[in-house]
Amino acid sequence: MGHRRPLPVVLASLLAGLAFPALADYQLNFPPPKTGLAQQIYDMNVWVMWICVGIFVVVFGAMFYAIWKHRKSVGHKAEQFHESTTVEIIWTTIPFLILVAMAWPATKLIIEQKDTSNPDVTVKVVGYQWKWEYDYLQDGVKFMSVLSTPREQIENKAEKGANYLLEVDEPMVVPVGKKVRLLLTANDVIHAWWVPAFGIKQDAIPGFVRDAWFTANEVGTYRGQCAELCGKDHGFMPIVVEVKSEADYKAWLEAKKAKAAAAAGDAGKVFTQAELMERGAKVYNANCASCHLPDGKGIPGAFPAITGSKIATGAKEGHIGMALIGKPGTAMPGFGPQLNDADIAAVVTYQRNGLGNSTGDLVQPADVKALRK
Amino acid sequence: MEAHATEHGHGAPKGITRWLTTTNHKDIGTMYLWFAAAMFLFAGLMAMAIRAELFEPGMQIMSPDYFNQLTTLHGLIMVFGAIMPAMAGFANWQIPMMIGAPDMAFPRMNNWSFWILPAAAILLVLSMVLPGGAVATGWTLYPPLYMQGGISYDLTIFAVHILGASSIMASLNIITTILNMRAPGMTLMKMPLFVWTWLITAFLLIAVMPVLAGAVTMLLTDRNFGTHFFDAAGGGDPVLFQHVFWFFGHPEVYILILPAFGIVSQIIPTFSRKPLFGYASMVYATASIAILSFFVWAHHMFTVGMPAVGQLYFMYATMLIAVPTGVKVFNWVATMWKGSLTFETPMLFAVGFVSMFTIGGFTGLVLAMAPIDIQMQDTYYVVAHFHYVLVSGALFAIFAGVYYWLPKWTGHMYNETLGKWHFWLSMISFNVLFFPQHFLGMAGMPRRIPDYALQFAEFNQISSIGGFVFGASQILMLIVIVQCIRGGKKAEAVVWEDAKGLEWTVPSPPPYHTFETAPEVK
To answer: Are A314 and A306 in contact (CB under 8 A)?
Structure first.
């Protein structure tokens, strides 16, 4: 857990007068840094905190001395001095010099943080409500990363796992010791990509591309969360990054490519109802259930029900169109860019024949392809 | 003095029309303060619900969307409904009495600037029961998320318009009163520091409230009339809103804290039995903070992806604010130095203010360091930081001021024992509530989340317990105030042994009209 614990402990007891029980179980500082940037931030924070503690001790030492010795109840008579230009100049100048000393290393670190040049790997990261998409531009690998904590755990119906709310179905994978450049943007609202161990946080803004970088120096799994309020499931879109050795990373890339090739084969396929329903249920729970709820009943006034809705029981072209394009001006996004034809076909079929609906018609990938512009 | 009170053949009118039609600065001040108290308790209840949901991991008592509505309304109502009206209440009661003026310069506008406040409050509260619920974007109202809401999002924009209009009218009134209605002999540099801080605050309000009104009006037209100010797909820029919002928002935090500086600068000299140290430097420091506040806004946006020079400029400018703020703290300590100190409740809250606000100032300095802020931005560290400056800062100063002037306003002494209990309970529970949030933020807990990973459970539980105690402690204050209004030991004109200033030259309680003949200030 946290290194250099004494500082916050000193602060805690000094300022708050609190004695926290069982300190070993309470993390008091940043997670152990795993990039050069995070290490520098860690060290700078510790240094700045010590400066603050020093100033606090001097200033409030004086104040508490006065409180102790210059009380009326111990018979202290008030002196009437009330001005000194010399003193004012001194306590304007000294803080200014301290600030300059703090600003100098911070300046160097900012310039380093902003230097995204010469990356080894570039990954485009797109924020969606409420998941992340990772697109490995050089290798043609692209996938969604969604919270994998079961709903039962969130609703307190099952024991919570060790990585509760910090686990995803498909983690981002990067090679150790390589400079990774992220290109960040968002599809709907502003999100922020944050992994504390890497010392990197960058807003993902719809319509704009921002960049950031990190070089992870240790193999392992690192977790973070979206840091910008992005709607109701803001607390449920974690980030998981697996740092692998160069060889493992290459192997992972190959496996991903093979899987993508297999998925592409689905596009022209004709599925049975059972296949579509099974696949559709998975797609529904990963993409639709957070708003329309797992049973399709929606939340009145906020998110419409799918059960018995005009769209899900009307013409299937309208339904496919809604899934592909969404409804502008509302929280309903178009899933066209996120999901492939087979996934859209499956989820539309599932919505028309499950969740209390029974239109009886099947939607095949070809139907979806025909409606894509 | 008593003779003056009946000069026009009337004292305070009776019944509800007294309050609806009043143009008396004391009545209006009282209404502002009660309004603020009601809003404080209401938004405080929301905070209790928030802390209850965060008591344990998992979703227990509300939906994530409702959680977001509560955090949003808690912020909006505390800032615009509790702290700002409370400061306006002090301004109304105290400024005329402190500068020897008979009333505010524009008494009818004064009535209007108060009475439109309840309309704004109703819009905000009503939005909780409308379809889709209240605004759930956080008090910062960022688009494009703001585009996704229902009817209550438009009502909230109107509420902000009304609140802004109220603040602008109150500010015009305060500036005119201070500049034109001071008693003969009271030069600007003889004004009590509370009057100075409000004069500067009023200028800040007039400068930035229209900016906020503009920003939310652009949201309104984006939402309803097809404009694309903040929509990248139509050529707009979502980050533009953040720049405009924080151009308002940063001066806004000084609007909340400068009158608090003023209150504390009245109280510390009284209970130190010693004049304020460095009066002139306090005035200059206040003005410097106000001016600097216009040039630092983008430090709230270090993670939007500004160029390095942008980061550097906003970091340097923000760090500079530590200098005049430090000067104020040093002056307060120097005022206490070699005084003859006593610790009645107002002084306890004032000393609590100085020490706790300084902790908020230190974390502010940490956050000003752009590279560190990259880690801290949008985490519980920031939540802890701004509650240290707004709760143990602005709110503690309001408490201090209420205890300090309540005997003057009501003519009765309050219950000192209960007052001290209120202080110690608030002070200790406040730190139990907010100190652990620094650790949560550093360990990686983002703000505005209704549920969290297991490693954050312990500190959240401690924080929630502190929160419940802090909330319950505020009922004590209500009891003290009501008791004091109803009766108690008779207060002298000079309530505190060494209190200086014109407000202590009138009886306690003051007659309905004071200073109809201006006093001479030497």
So the answer is: no
Q: Is A18 near chain B, with CB under 8 Å?
A: yes
Q: Which residue of B has its CA nearest to A328?
A: B148
Q: Which helix (H) or strand (E) holds A184?
A: strand A180-186
B213-247 pLDDT, tens digit per residue, is 999 999 999 999 999 999 998 999 999 999 999 99
Is residue B167 packed enough to be buried (19+ CB in 10 Å), middle (13-18) or exposed (0-12)? buried
Pick the closest to residue B485 from B410, B418, B419 (CA basis).
B410
A200 shares its domain with A75: no
Where are the alpha helices (H) located in B127-237, listed in sequence order? 151-180, 193-224
Is residue A226 within 8 angstroms of chain B, CB to CB?
yes
Residue B498: closest CA among chain A residues belongs to which residue?
A78
pLDDT beyond 90 at B293 = yes
pLDDT band at A1 (very low <50, low <70, confident <90, very high): very low
Q: Are residues A158 and A290 in the same domain?
A: no
- Tell me, yes or no, if A205 comes closer than 8 A to chain B by beta carbon: yes
For position A345, which CATH number holds?
A: 1.10.760.10
Number of domains forming the structure of chain A: 3
Pairing relationship of beta strands A210-214 and A200-204 according to DSSP bridges: unpaired
Residue A341 sits at the chain B interface (C-beta within 8 Å): no
1.10.3720.10, 1.20.210.10, 1.10.10.10, 3.90.25.10: CATH of B24-505: 1.20.210.10
Which residues does residue A127 pair with via DSSP β-bridges, in sequence order? A132, A186
Q: Which domain holds residue A125?
A: 121-265
B474 burial type by CB count under 10 A (0-12 exposed, 13-18 middle, 19+ buried): middle
Q: Are residues A16 and A41 in the same domain?
A: yes
Q: Which of A212-216, A269-273, B34-38, B464-468 has the lowest mean pLDDT?
A: A269-273
- Is residue B248 within 8 A of residue B205, CB to CB? The reply is no
Higher pLDDT, B150 or B117: B117
**If 0-12 CB within 10 Å is exposed, 13-18 middle and 19+ buried, where does residue B233 land?**
exposed
Q: How far apart are CA B493 and CA B474, in angstroms?
A: 28
- Decide if A1 is inside a domain: no
Q: DSSP state, A125?
A: E
* Contact present, B511 and B4 (Cβ < 8 Å): yes
* Residue A72 to residue B330, Cβ atoms within 8 A: no
Our CA-based measurement puts residue A202 at a distance from the nearest CA of chain B, in whole angstroms, of: 5
Pick from B148, B326, B337: CB nearest A331: B148
Does A280 map to a domain? yes
**CA dihedral angle for residue A144, residue A146, residue A148, residue A151, rounded to 10 degrees:** -140
Distance between CA atoms of residues B68 and B80, nearest Å: 18
Query: Are A38 and A140 found together in one domain?
Result: no
Sign of the alpha-carbon torsion through B247, B253, B258, B261:
negative
**Residue A30 located in a structural domain:** yes
Residue A301 lies in a domain: yes
The token pair that represents B59 in the structure block: 């979703």
Judged against a pLDDT cut of 90, whether residue B27 lies above it is answered with yes
